[in-house]
Amino acid sequence: MKKFSFLPIVLIVMALLVSACGNNDKGASTNNASTGDNGSNNGKADTTATATLESVKASGKLRIGTEGTYAPFTYHDAAGKLTGFDVDIATEVSKRLGVQPEFIETQWDGIFAGLNSKRFDTVFNEVSITDERKQKYDFSDPYIVSKAVLIVSEDNTDIQKFADLKGKKAGQSLTSNLTQIAKSNGAEIVATEGFNQAIDLLTSKRVDATVNDGLSYLDLKKQKPDAPIKKVDESPDASHSAAVFNKGSEDLIKEVNKALADMKADGTYLKISEKYFGADVSK
Fold this sequence. Notes:
Oligomer: single chain
Shape: globular
């Protein structure tokens, strides 16, 4: 009878045990890398969680959602550098928090989705404070005051006031509160990716009008006085804009508010405001 050796079986069992232990160790290591033994991610910020002052300071940066196509608030200069009023304000706020700003450019219609998914810690992009948004998000103290304006081609004589938008095409960002003004006045909405595209559609006669930000309109006319557009109406109510955060960022918001207040007190805010608008736009 042929002898049966147990040695191969023993070796196989040992190999399986070693492999299993290795897999368990790897799993534990992976879990610790994401949460840390005490949930602190070994001193690194958890980019999947709601931003707090602690997490921002741990990462050494404030991740800021912004368009990059919305002059003069957030846009690229002739050299291609991201600049603008909101960019300068957010950069100074980050400096006073003791961290570096990291700007993440996103089209307006996706900017809240980016905040929801924690791609960024906050949004600096002239975001208007509305009751609907306050149900889901928290805001810093307002640092921009502006009014909605109705803009049409310079040769347009049919539209003189908001009520004249009924049945007309208005170029609007779909998630903008300005779009609600156009809709409430009966306009047919043509989706755009922001202010610049809305103006492009207007000047090419693909839309009849756009309801947009008064400060952006003033800046455009300052930069391009011959632009074939005109303002024909203005909302009586001012819109207040602020940095927006996911709920749960209260301590971070508190420090951002302190930074904004200090900037106003020492003249830094006014300097930035006059650079882009020639006036204090917080009033």
